[in-house]
Prior knowledge:
2 helices; three-stranded antiparallel β-sheet; two-stranded antiparallel ribbon; alpha+beta; about 70 residues
Amino acid sequence: DTTTTLTTAGRAPFDVRPYLDRGIFVRLKNIGLFKLAHVEHGTVSWPGGLDIAPETLWLKSTDIKTQAPVT
């Protein structure tokens, strides 16, 4: 489902799906809210104070070609 995949720095996808059942991220199951994603303070953010830490985006991204973790 491409609606739950973010692209970090144009280089590696970050799959949000594992986070959608955790804490405040449950709210992102609302596709209308999810589509309001924007970059703020160097990371992906949504209205209401939702964001994903930039280090999480980096550490949990996968290489587009190999699907291996980015190192």
